[in-house]
Amino acid sequence: MHSLSLGSHAPAQTECTNPEVNCDGVINLDDLLVLLVHFGYVDSNGDGVWEVEVGCMEDECGVCDGPGPQVLVIDTIAFTLDSVYVESLNAWEVYQIPDTTFTYVCANPGCTDPTAINFDPYASEDDGTCMATNPCSSPGTWVHEGHTYDLVAIGDQCWFAENLRSEHYANGDAIPGGLSNSEWTSTDATALGAQAVYNNDSESLADYGRLYNGYSAIDPRGLCPTGWHVPSDEEFMALEMHLEMLEAEAQSTGWRGVDQGMKMKALNGDSPGWNGNNESGFAGLPAGYRHHNTGNFAVQGSYTFFWTTSPNTVYNWYRGLSSGYTEVERSFSNLRGGFSIRCLLDS
Q1: Geometric angle at alpha carbon 262, from 315 and 211, rounded to 5°
Q2: What is the phi/psi pair of residue 297, to 5°?
Q3: Three-state SS for 164?
Q4: How far apart are CA 308 and CA 232, in angstroms?
């Protein structure tokens, strides 16, 4: 913040020649104050100090006016060779001289044990979350970005039993959000990953999580937490066939199966709930979606859609559930569409 201590307030500005800007025939302090207003300075609290907010500068870690990377790590270790003649041994002894280069990185807590199922290669410090066993067996939950997700085992797979609500990729990079309709519908110009909350409603976020476009779902930085991933089309088929959908049906398009959609939808008595029987424990909810052509939000309360990472020409496959269908939809959509995400444990 820049400031100047001055004693009076500026009169209304009229069209005059600089620097005599208030048309009183005298170049004085009042003219300076008018110029300060022109350049964005104001005495907002009447204390005689005219100030302009210059905003904050984000550091490399995305912190407003932050100090930048503070975690010291080893960058490279190089060795040089030298030798010395040892007269008593009548021999030359060769030895190494290490030269270590250090660098600073942004803090990124996570699991640093490479043998753990949730090992995070981007982690700069261990946060005590390393796990050696399938988390669906114990503890049955997963904490990510401050939210505890319920998990469910379906066949040999371990799924999030809730929609993802993360605002960051697995490496810590922010996923752009708060996009206007025009910004949302132009994300294909740069293949920009993006996320949104239905109608910017905090209650929707609490119940249904966030909606993500297809570019974020396939981003190599990873939309799901480290150790998890956005499922492929084939992995969704494995879930459906475990729920007794025939393989030929699973590989077809449109609304397939018999009652697999009912088994994947939450119970009416759940909070929040839907009109399924949730036999699978998947607990699907009618989160709605964000339209790829208009950016509008639609059909919350009656439909939900889940991205896969599998392409179909220039589109990607998705799964859909509906209040009016007992089956599961398999179709494909433009990557600008905003759908829900369910994370699947890496095998």
Answers
A1: 40
A2: -90, 145
A3: coil
A4: 5
Report d(CA 242, CA 235) in Å as an integer.
11
Q: Residues near 215 by Cβ (< 8 Å), separated by ≥ 6?
A: 187, 188, 191, 192, 193, 194, 335, 336
Going by the DSSP 8-state scheme, the letter that residue 230 receives in this structure is P
Q: What is the pLDDT of residue 13?
A: 44
For the cut 90, the answer to whether the pLDDT of residue 195 exceeds it is yes
* Separate counts of helices (H) and strands (E) for the chain: 7, 20
DSSP state of 27: -
Question: Quick one: tokens of 331?
Answer: 């179709």
DSSP string over 282-303: --B---BEE-TTT--EE-TTTE
Q: What confidence tens digit (pLDDT) does each residue in 127-182 have?
A: 887 877 788 887 899 999 999 999 999 999 999 999 999 999 999 999 999 999 99
At a CB cut-off of 8 Å and minimum separation 6, what does 254 contact?
329, 330, 331
Model confidence band, residue 77 (pLDDT cutoffs 50, 70, 90): low
**DSSP-derived 3-state class of residue 96:** strand
